[in-house]
Design goal:
Helix content: 25-40%
Bound molecules: aspartic acid
Number of strands: 9
Order of helices and strands: EHEHHHHHEEEHEEHHEE
Distance between the termini: 55 Å
Structural class: alpha/beta
Shape: globular
Number of helices: 9
């Protein structure tokens, strides 16, 4: 079985939702799906998560969020209308979220509602059950993740459903408070679900065809890395190559589950496969990739 996480640009509008459905339906093993909030549709666009955080900050200062929140609502309503998903339940959810943010909801709750609403829409679009991360991703009250509780809850509540859509990025503690991972943290949710259901592979669908042998801004014709180990990934990420959230590595690596980075806009491209040990059939390349960090010149 496969767990597939789709990033914000992969679910930025209804055209992207259609691509995601095609990808999910092209492989019956893709059973547990983890979406991010809608990302940018073009370079000038705003991420829904950023707008939600802005709403929270405005509400904290006592300002009226309705104008900005309308822009968020429009993003979801447009997706729902384009895909002929009934919008009445969505409008109700949007009203509740707006009211809560306006009346002092926490930053984590506010920031996480993009994933929550997007997962509801995606579950309807795919015809998969919606499983709220609130019920399966468990945080401690200090904001750290409770790994063992999360693992147990996934096995107890998600696995028996055999398939589902689970919003990324957040979870709750025992007192009913919301917590989020750091930015880009839907990757972490995907990895936790992959470990919890003991997936054969964790697919991370994004808008690039994986890691490159060198930064394309410096080496424009650098190639995509087809395979690497988790150790090599750590080295490259440490040196600045950022495709995956760094905390998304541990759950799957320790469980022996490979991660495959793939491109929603180029689904036939194999992407980059990350394994515990090298899997080359022939000879492995001498160098996997090169990354570096700029240091400022000594004065
Ligand atoms: N939506 C969140 C963010 O923008 C989490 C994620 O995309 O993974 O950081």
């Amino acid at each position: 079985m496969k767990v597939a996480k789709f990033g914000g640009s992969s679910l930025a509008d209804s055209k992207q939702f259609i691509k995601v459905k095609n990808i999910v339906e092209s492989d019956p093993l893709r059973l547990f799906i983890v979406p991010s909030a809608p990302g940018k549709r073009n370079p000038e666009d705003k991420k829904v998560t950023d707008m939600l955080i802005e709403c929270h900050n405005m509400a904290k200062k006592g300002e009226d969020i309705s104008k900005l929140f309308n822009k968020i609502s429009e993003r979801f309503i447009e997706i729902a209308e384009d895909l002929s998903i009934g919008i009445e339940p969505l409008l109700k959810e949007l009203k509740i979220v707006e009211k809560n943010i306006q009346s002092d909801a926490s930053l984590a709750y506010s920031a996480s509602r993009g994933e929550y609403l997007n997962a509801i829409l995606l579950s309807k679009h795919l015809g998969f059950p919606f499983v709220d991360a609130k019920d399966i991703i468990r945080f401690n009250q200090d904001g750290s993740l409770s790994q063992s509780e999360t693992q147990n809850l996934i096995q107890e509540k998600l696995l028996p459903l055999k398939k589902g859509v689970i919003p990324g990025f957040y979870g709750f503690d025992d007192n009913g408070n919301c917590h989020v991972f750091s930015r880009g943290g839907s990757d972490v949710t995907g990895a936790l679900i992959a470990r919890g259901v003991n997936a054969d592979i964790y697919e991370n669908w994004t808008d690039v065809c994986g890691f490159r042998t060198a930064d394309p801004r410096i080496v424009p014709d650098s190639k995509f890395i087809q395979q690497m180990t988790y150790r090599e990934l750590r080295e490259l990420s440490y040196m600045g190559a950022s495709v995956l959230h760094e905390d998304a590595v541990f759950p799957v690596r320790n469980a022996g589950i490979p991660t495959q980075v793939r491109n929603t806009n180029d689904p036939l491209h194999p992407g980059t496969l990350i394994n515990y040990t090298p899997q080359y059939a022939g000879q492995a390349p001498l160098i996997t990739g090169i990354a570096g960090k700029r240091v400022s010149a000594p004065s």
